[in-house]
Amino acid sequence: MNAVLPLPVVLPLLGAALSIMAFKSRRTQRLISLAVLSATTVISVVLLIQADRFGPVVAQMGGWPAPFGITLIADRLAGIMLAVASVMLVSVLVYAIGQPGAERNHGAFHPVYLVLSAGVMAAFLTGDLFNLFVAFEMMLTASYVLLTLGGGREQIRSGMTYVVISLVASALFLTSLALIYAATGTVNMAQLAVRMAELPDGVRLAFGLLLLVVFGIKAALFPLFSWLPDSYPTAPSPITAVFAGLLTKVGVYAIIRTQTLFLDSSSRPGTLILVVASITMVVGVLGAIAQDDIPRILSFHIVSQIGYMIMGLGLFTVAGLAGAILYIIHHIIVKTTLFLVAGLAEVRAGSGRLAAIGGVARVYPVLGVLFLLPALSLAGLPPFSGFVAKFALVEAGLSVGQYVVVAISILVSLLTLFSMTKIWGGAFWGEPQFTEDAADPTEPPKGLRVMYLSVGFLVAVSLAVALAAGPLYNLSDRTANELLHPDRYVVEVLG
Predict the structure, then answer these.
(1) How far does the chain reach from its first CA to its final CA, in angstroms?
(2) Among the residues of 236-316, which ranges form H helices?
(3) Domain count of the chain?
(4) What pTM was computed for the model?
(5) What residues in the chain have per-residue pLDDT under 70?
(6) Minimal CA–CA distance to 415: which of 287, 294, 273, 310?
(7) Cα–Cα 20 to 30 A to 283, which of 67, 192, 306, 373?
């Protein structure tokens, strides 16, 4: 099993190289990408099962023992993120193949998309901070290319904003790495868990806050989120869906991993994290309410929903972390689905502005259903996955007396419902303001069927998450226990 561990990173990189060689054949590129990401999905599920049943899977690259070599490790949290991310990446790829635009017009789409996938997988699997930095830079490079495909003025402008903010975060990350190495003599995460405990509480807290800022930029936490609503809506809808569903979650993953592994109960900034989470929720949902464009509304919702995940971390209890992990699973799937539906509505109606379309559900009732189900889930209405995840977080907060944070989370959930009804009333209900297939009446139905198939699959997955809420929560609970008691993680890496 150890030999399989590098494959989620290696296969996409090999696929990217083959895709470059097949630059002139879009059909070949599609086959390569689908085969690589499908294989990655299968491997990710196998790694998750292995990690859950038998403990973390560890591989030392090049035969060099930790902490000298490159360590890859798949514990329960990494396995969950790998599996969910792989399913999402395959679904978005299928959608992109059907949609007119970036995938059809640019031969660079497939190799860059695979490099982005490799970066995401590397971030989840790496066992040291430096290679986490490398993974982030892989994602940054690939995401900038995808963000600016087409070369539109708004895309270039938003791409520059995204790159500048990301480079600032990268510089802070490198600075953090230098300081941590100077204080501990290592960047291996397992060894850091041991050596951080030997440092004074104040120093550990300072490192924890520094990493929180670094990854908070990546995750779009308040007040470091302003780049996201300006950057994401300008990209093609498949790219925006990947960014919304995955890239910010990599930042959240890094926050959860470092805060639980490096800090103990005496040095964790729980109160500060809860305050940041609360403000992030409120600011994000208020920004969403103020918008009149579907992609921008959904982009602000990303910020708001990140607050729920960080709220679970801030509680620093098994129940809180379990709720956060369950929420991450729900959010990756639902948010990706909503952005794909928004792109499909734009293809059908010719615009994403609420005032310019209307009546989408009346003209295309299937599209209306595909939007309504994940929208209700995002708002947290029963019996959808969003309700289950939010209920777990609320229960965890009440159990430790965090009544203010719980009240804010419930209020934000109601405001989220209001903003989703705004999209429904403006874009999907009312009198149609467009003609059928206004964007491209010549678009062949085959491409549209592929797009509908991808979105329908993700909607089905989101419903499956709700139906399997019990087993998934139990898995999240085991994962949370493992995170708060990282002894086995350390032993498996260091021996």
Answers:
(1) 17
(2) 237-242, 248-262, 270-289, 294-315
(3) 1
(4) 0.91
(5) 1, 101-105, 150-152, 266-267, 348-359, 426-427, 430-446
(6) 287
(7) 373
